[in-house]
Amino acid sequence: MPNNNVINDELIEFCHLYNLPIQHLGKILRDPKVIPMIRGKAFEFSVCDRLENLLDNETWEVQKPFINPQLGSHDEDVSITHRNTGTKFTIECKLSAKGEFKKLANGYSIKVKCMRSRTLGTTQVERLAPVLGVTPQSLSVHNDQYRPQDFNFVITSLANAFYETDENGIFVWQPNEQGQIFLATKYGENLSNEEYQDRAFADMYIARSQDIAITTENNIQCTRRQCTTPTNCGFIPRGY
After folding, report:
1. Would 96 disulfide with which of 39, 48, 121, 161, CB 3.0-4.6 Å?
2. Distance from C-alpha of 73 to C-alpha of 42, rounded to nearest angstrom
3. Which of 33, 64, 29, 46 is nearest to 156 (CA)?
4. Model pLDDT for residues 176-231, shown as the tens digit of each residue
């Protein structure tokens, strides 16, 4: 368990460093514009912790890199490296989309948004296009979408699909009736809301980037109107 005194000292130091009024820190963190960023970043650390627990430490090195994407580098969420061979895999961490749980005729659907947090500008498009093996025109059309080369795997969690925004604009755990049935079926009946929330958050799924790209083999259609090859453009859709 983390040491509360250490955490408190780090928070105080952080607030002093950035001139944050510590007496209002709780309200700052609960702001509807702030919560999604915090939860998205926190999920990266949760994925890192999970991989460290699952993978053999003598075989794999799990890292949470600190890279400033504003400097032109890809914002690498988590990486795992095979110690003997040096083979490295990068992981993109994406929470499921808020409130996007749906009951379908043949099962359930939970949407995951997998898109860049920053749209590529003209300069970045010109620089990245030859690196990614596409034309600047094509990259401009898909300037907030990933290519499979951007990362090896994407990992998501179910929980965010059961959050809604309340009348005050705050994110709250609020599965609808069908969501409650799904959770009870998947994790067992008569659990508390907190238990369902924790189990859904810990329920993570992984996919290879090449398996979710728009190709003729994957039968995925690009929805960009200006895309000239909508069945085979090679970009990863913004959402599933």
Report:
1. 161
2. 21
3. 46
4. 999 999 999 999 999 999 999 999 999 999 999 999 999 999 889 999 999 999 99
Distance CA 49, CA 44 (A): 9
| Distance spanning both ends of the chain, measured CA to CA | 36
Q: Is this structure's pTM higher than 0.85?
A: yes
Look at the block and give the residue holding tokens 């991989």.
Answer: 51
Rounded Cα distance between 165 and 98, Å, is 9
Q: 3-class secondary structure for the chain?
A: CCCHHHHHHHHHHHHHHCCCCHHHHHHHHHCCCCHHHHHHHHHHHHHHHHHHHHCCCCCEEEECCCCCHHHCCCCCCEEEEECCCCCEEEEEECCEEEEEEEEECCEEEEEEECCCCCCCCHHHHHHHHHHHCCCHHHHHHCCCCCCHHHCCEEEEECHHHHEEECCCCCEEECCCHHHHHHHHHHHCCCCCHHHHHHHHHHCEEEEEHHHCCCCCCCCCCCCCCCCCCCCCCCCCCCEC
* Interatomic CA distance for residues 26 and 15, integer angstroms: 12
How far is Cα 91 from Cα 76, in angstroms, rounded to an integer?
7
Ranges of each domain in the chain:
1-30, 32-211
